[in-house]
Amino acid sequence: MFCYVLLVLVLCAEEIFAFSPAIRVSEVSVKAGGSISIPCLYSSQYTNHVKYLCKGYYWNYCTFAVRTDQKNSAKFSISDDKIQRIFTVTVNELTNDDLYYWCGVEINDGADDGYPFHLSVTTGTSSLYVDNQEEKAFLGGEITIKCHHQSNPGEMRWCRMGSSCVTQPSGSINGTEVTIDTNGPNVFSVTMRGLKTESSGWYLCVSGNLQFPVRLTVTEQPNTSKYYTCLKVTQEYVSELHVILLCEREMFIRVSEVSVKAGGSISIPGNLQFPVRLTVTEQPTTSKYYNYKRETYRLMNVCECQ
């Protein structure tokens, strides 16, 4: 009889809670003196309600740490992503006093609602952590996140807040391929491939009963081809020009050697951060092309570089 009543209470609680009963943060290991950002889920009907972080072991007696309708402080900050329906709270300068908190939503026509999470503050190495809590990647690309843990970590999973989880060795979350590699000592690596715009959001490294939140932002890779600059030279005096075109994130033309006729003139960009060797010769040339090492670089006309 007792079990039946308890089950009814749990089911009713999930119906009236402002928060989704889906995957969320409940236990996080953190290092003293550091900071942590915790994502809090809420249901769509509370999109425009006030959200807050409440500090204390008991819900009925906890005190406001920060609210979305008030200013942030040096210790606490809060932001609300109404599209993802997740508000994020950040606690800075962690101490042994930062243990018990509640994600809370103000209910206009009834009692406020919330769910708890616990911070386990340690002066040593955290039981579960990542190198960077904020990660960025490009649309269509991939990203690998290392979840560091202590020995005997329990079941290892990669979860999306409010969605689903993947266990070793592979699976998918919302159409994005996920693989988990546990071969490294005290670390499991999560790789997501074929990233989409909707892959952006909060994820969790999960090890046993511990979670560590990671926010991923996926953006389009910028097209930097328009930032090529054209090297302007006095054409009739150029005999040889070695150019290296770097086509990675920063695109620019690098000039390493120029040969010109004595008495002539040449113009080289003035923002170069490397040496340029200038060789003066007596013989003019009417070459209209840069000379490249053919096995490495393609031949480019001087006016193609716009």
In total, the number of strands is 21
What is the total domain count? Answer: 3
Strand residue content: 35-45%
Low-confidence region ranges? 1-17, 225-255, 271-275, 283-306
Secondary structure class reads: mainly beta
Alpha plus pi helix count = 1
- SSE ordering: HEEEEEEEEEEEEEEEEEEEEE
CATH superfamily of the largest domain: Immunoglobulins
Q: Please, what is the average pLDDT?
A: 77
**What is the 3D form?**
globular
Overall helicity:
under 10%
- Output the CATH class name of the largest domain: Mainly Beta
Strand order of the largest sheet: 1-8-7-3-4
CATH topology of the largest domain: Immunoglobulin-like
Question: From the 3D coordinates, which CATH architecture of the largest domain would you assign?
Answer: Sandwich
Cα Rg: 29 Å
- What is the terminal-to-terminal distance? 80 Å
Largest sheet: 5 strands, mixed
Subcellular location: Membrane
Pfam families: V-set
GO molecular function, one term: transmembrane signaling receptor activity
Organism: Gasterosteus aculeatus aculeatus
